[in-house]
Design goal:
The chain is an all-alpha fold. It is about 70% helix and about 0% strand. It folds into 2 domains: about 1-95, RNA polymerase sigma factor, region 2, helix turn helix motif (Rna Polymerase Sigma Factor, Chain: A), CATH 1.10.1740; about 100-194, Orthogonal Bundle (Arc Repressor Mutant, subunit A). It has helices spanning about 5-10, 15-20, 25-45, 50-65, 80-95, 100-105, 125-130, 135-145, 150-155, 160-180, 180-194.
Length: about 190
């Protein structure tokens, strides 16, 4: 293929790239990988996969997406579709390694509390996710990072729906407390002055 064709891929929408990839144009899929590969690895890290493991699962998910590209109908985003594939593959890997059972049982203990006085520092999501238990992090990442519904996450994790909802609720509460220390301090100041 010529350089003009390759640069043409960069200007195409994901749905168009998927159609080209489904027709056998590997470079079109390569453009999708270039666009979304790091976001997939980021989601997997947020779910608990470490460095090389996140890379391996992302690669496996992208390979599965390539093999099933004709199934993508464009009803949602390509990124969301492949993130769901990656999340499910990571969960299967956890199940194979018997770590999922441990993660599902853990999480009722509060882990390290968010440090007060961090209002002057920028807090990123990866750091904030560290205050969550592994089960909370996994459920929040699946529902908000991979775009699965609570029911889909419960099915994938083989957990009761209420358990997943509880992990998500507790996780979001911890994230709000961690990511909004300035608001908390302001509200506390108003209560003590009022």
């Amino acid at each position: 293929m010529s350089g003009a064709t390759i640069s043409t891929y960069a200007s195409l929408h994901d749905v168009e790239l998927c159609a080209h990839a489904a027709a056998g144009e590997r470079r079109a899929f390569g453009e999708l990988v270039r666009r979304h590969g790091s976001a997939i690895r980021g989601l997997l890290r947020r779910m608990g996969a470490q460095g090389a493991e996140a890379d391996d699962v992302a690669q496996d998910a992208l390979l599965a997406a390539f093999e099933r590209i004709a199934e993508f109908r464009g009803e949602g985003t390509f990124a969301g579709w492949v993130k769901r594939i990656a999340a499910r593959q990571y969960l299967r890997r956890l199940q194979r390694e018997k770590r999922l059972a441990e993660l599902a049982v853990e999480g009722t203990d509060d882990e390290a509390d968010a440090t007060a006085g961090d209002a002057d520092h920028r807090i990123d999501l990866d750091e904030a996710l560290k205050v969550l238990s592994p089960a909370e992090r996994l459920c929040v990442s699946m529902c908000y990072g991979a775009g699965l519904s609570h029911g889909e996450a419960a099915e994938a994790l083989n957990l009761p729906l209420g358990t997943v909802k509880s992990h998500v609720k507790r996780g979001l509460e911890k994230l709000r407390a961690r990511l909004a220390p300035a608001e908390s301090a302001t509200a506390e100041g108003r209560r003590s002055n009022g």
